[in-house]
Design a protein that fits this description.
13 helices; globular; about 70% helix; about 230 residues; about 0% strand; mainly alpha
């Protein structure tokens, strides 16, 4: 909270003195992002431990990672989950343009933002499930499976070939996060996106509703944990 407040104050000063405070504001955003990514990783590990359909061996590895983080307050995400950090950092550097909602431009933007190739390879691999693909779309657009369904139906009804963030916000009746931070995305927007997607996934499991049962990050993390010996 202190770092967030300090960042807001610095951003306010940056508006009046851009040359003096831009670099400081950027560095503060990076530090805040590291803390947020570490928090997200902790929540992700805890979410896996709650799932009944996750193998016990995977849960043990997740628990070991989580205990390591809790035992050493100096540990940050790049120390224990660099691939996750790469995915989040790259996503936080990109804007979703929506377009045809096929996620092609968003995937390309993630690639050129130096996202670890293992992330893209995992979701593009042969044999990936429909739920994994849907979860990756949620990640790319910062939206839930249900919201993307609403937008696609609206595009069909309105005979639109492409969508914009402003149009999407109007259809969904909420502000699109990235419009609020068009110059440099606030990492808190990605954290809120993760929370929405995690809650939506949990609801689908309880309600038996269609859509991914996990977030994109959870599918990726399980694969990474299962690769550990």
């Amino acid at each position: 909270n202190f770092l967030r407040a300090f960042l807001k104050s610095t951003v306010a000063l940056e508006a009046d003195h851009p040359q003096r405070f831009h670099a400081l504001a950027h560095d503060l955003r990076e530090d805040l992002a590291q803390s947020i990514y570490t928090l997200m990783a902790e929540e992700l590990f805890l979410a896996l431990l709650r799932k009944r359909n996750v193998e016990m061996s995977t849960k043990r590895r997740a628990a070991d990672q989580l205990i390591s983080v809790w035992d050493d307050a100096a540990i940050e995400i790049d120390d224990f989950a660099p691939i996750l950090e790469s995915a989040w950092h790259a996503r936080n550097s990109c804007h979703s343009h929506f377009g045809t909602l096929l996620a092609a431009s968003e995937t390309f933007a993630l690639a050129i933002a130096d996202c670890n190739p293992k992330v893209l390879e995992f979701f593009a691999r042969d044999g990936s499930s429909a739920d994994e693909s849907s979860a990756f779309e949620e990640f790319l657009f910062n939206m839930t499976f249900e919201e993307l369904g609403i937008l696609r139906r609206a595009m069909t009804e309105q005979q639109l070939r492409t969508a914009t963030p402003a149009w999407a916000g109007g259809v969904l009746g909420r502000q699109i996060e990235e419009l609020e931070h068009s110059r440099e995305i606030d990492p808190m927007a990605l954290y809120r996106s993760y929370q929405r997607r995690q809650l939506a996934a949990d609801f689908r499991v309880m309600a038996g509703a269609p859509g991914p049962r996990r977030t994109a990050e959870a599918y990726l993390l399980i694969d990474l944990l299962d690769q550990q010996t």
